[in-house]
Design brief:
The protein is α/β, with parallel strands linked by helices. It has 22 helices and 15 strands. The chain is 47% helix and 15% strand. The structure holds pyridoxal-5'-phosphate (PLP).
């Protein structure tokens, strides 16, 4: 399997997966995609049904990462999805009403990003070897909270990789701050900056593109790499859980092999839902993919009108990981549905004018695979309360957006197929918003909110969150934005 860039109009450059994972983004600014979709047949799915998650992951990743050996993939998957990291299993499906809720947050940071960020660092470390790269990778992350912790947890103590995370000192919750400040591992470093998330992000971008810093790094035997969600290494592991969930539903007798399954995904950067789309194109029996957005409903508008217009108000919501105006991975869908030339044209319109429009033929073609719905703040809270009151099922605000969209789709279309909904975070990651949705007063202190949510709902918070109050703080440094580059150089000199 070779990979190409979504913007390579001459189709000249083809790369192996290891190179693509090490590189992150293509030189022409495009995203790497497989040049074709490997096919899985009903027999393949039947065979996967008899396997466990680690074996399914190794098999499915092996269809794309053909330059990795089966042993390498099996090794990476078993280290990533171990009992220590995922005590309850890599994924858990809860049947709630007539929905199958696919909980992807049983990993070490209680968010779905663990599913990719637990295995991708291992794939990267192998990629460095395979590419004959003599330097080690230095991962720089600017985070508004969740991604930084998931990346730290994934890269901690992984060979040939170091990771440095910057977060806005006053822009994250106390729990998020403690999650990062207490991170273990000999190859990690965390610094708070005086400023907001944008300051942290632009600081990282400046350092990333600075020839001066790159040269200093090179002298220390290091090169920059990114843990960004546009890296193919983060997308590929997400395909696995949709195929695996299908197998689990067959094994549990919820569906028959060959039945079509609808899938709803609470969407931000379009990575998670794109993975479900790729699973469908590979041959997994999938009906509709329902793209669920919060109040930032740019994708709902896109799928219903064909116009993607980012010139609009940005809302900070209670489902912050979906607060986004540029869904980077949509570029990959546009490429799959058209070609590099058309795709590059859309991206040019978007960067120059903040808007692009697809013609009616393309919009109708996308509608064969996708439906899209959005859910505002009060409907998100109502959904959390409704599902707790009716089914004793507690969900986080991101998942609530997905549940609302799935139920709306069913009512509007009368489609009776089984519905799988991706659940992307533990409700305890967003205790304050969930308590409020349940009509409770919200304690000032994060840990107090955690305790109260547990008491009111009779559910148990994940250990990684409740144990934080007693963890040892390793990184409590606060720096100015202009000290970020020296901080990177310091870390490189270690
Ligand atoms: C990142 C994230 C999302 C959005 O996923 P995309 O792949 O960016 O669409 C949804 N929910 C949670 C909790 C997340 O952390």
């Amino acid at each position: 399997m070779k990979f190409i860039s979504t913007r390579d109009t001459n189709n000249l450059n083809k790369f192996d997966s290891a190179f693509v994972i090490k590189k992150g983004i293509a030189d022409d600014g495009g995203l790497f995609v497989p040049e074709s979709f490997p096919v899985i047949t009903a027999d393949d799915i039947k065979a996967l049904c008899a396997k466990n998650y680690v074996e399914r992951a190794a098999d499915i990743l092996g269809l794309f990462l053909t330059d990795y050996t089966a042993e390498e993939l099996k090794g990476a998957a078993s280290a990533a999805y171990s009992k220590e990291a995922f005590e309850d299993g890599a994924t858990v499906i809860s049947k709630v009403g007539d929905n199958e809720i696919l909980e992807l947050w049983h990993g070490p940071t209680s968010a779905f990003k663990d599913m990719a960020l637990q295995i991708m660092p291992r794939l990267l470390s192998t990629a460095i070897e395979k590419c004959g790269e003599t330097r080690d990778a230095l991962i720089l992350v600017a985070t508004s909270g969740d991604t930084g912790k998931a990346a730290l947890e994934g890269y901690a103590d992984v060979d040939r990789v170091r990771i440095l995370v910057f977060y806005p000192s006053e822009g994250v919750s106390r729990i998020q701050k403690l999650q990062m400040q207490t991170q273990k591992g000999n190859n990690v470093k965390v610094a708070a900056i005086r400023g907001n998330f944008d300051d942290a992000q632009s600081g990282v971008k400046r350092i990333f593109t600075s020839a001066d810093v790159a040269e200093k790094l090179d002298q220390k035997g290091l090169f920059f790499s990114s843990a960004n969600s546009i890296n193919w290494g983060r997308l590929a592991p997400q395909i696995v859980y949709y195929i695996s969930a299908y197998c689990d539903l067959v094994n549990e007798g919820e569906i028959n092999l060959g039945d079509k399954l609808n899938i709803t995904v609470p969407t931000g950067n379009f990575g998670n839902i794109l993975a479900a789309y790729i699973a469908k194109k590979m041959g997994l029996p999938v009906g509709k993919l329902i793209c669920a957005s919060n109040k930032n409903n740019i994708l709902t508008d896109f799928f219903t009108t064909g116009v993607y217009d980012k010139r609009r108000v940005f809302y900070a919501t209670i489902s912050p990981s979906m607060d986004i105006l540029i869904s980077s991975n949509l570029e990959r869908l546009l490429y799959f549905a058209t070609d590099a030339e058309v795709c590059a044209g859309f991206m040019k319109d978007l960067s120059e004018n903040g808007i692009f429009t697809v013609n009616e033929d393309l919009r109708a073609k996308l509608e064969e695979d996708f439906a899209a719905y959005c859910c505002d703040e009060s409907l998100t809270k109502e959904t959390i309360k409704k599902y707790f009151d009716s089914y004793s099922y507690l969900c986080d605000p991101h998942t609530a957006v997905g549940i609302y969209a799935a139920d709306k789709y069913k009512v509007e279309t009368g489609d009776k197929r089984a519905m799988l909904i991706a659940s992307t975070a533990s409700p305890y990651k967003f205790s304050a918003a969930v308590l409020e949705a349940l009509g409770e007063s919200v304690p000032e202190d994060d840990f107090e909110a955690l305790r109260k949510l547990s008491e009111k709902t009779g559910t148990v918070p994940p250990k990684n969150l409740s144990s934080l109050a007693d963890a040892v703080v390793r990184f409590d440094k606060i720096i100015d934005v202009k000290e970020m580059a020296p901080e990177v150089e310091d870390f490189a000199a270690l």
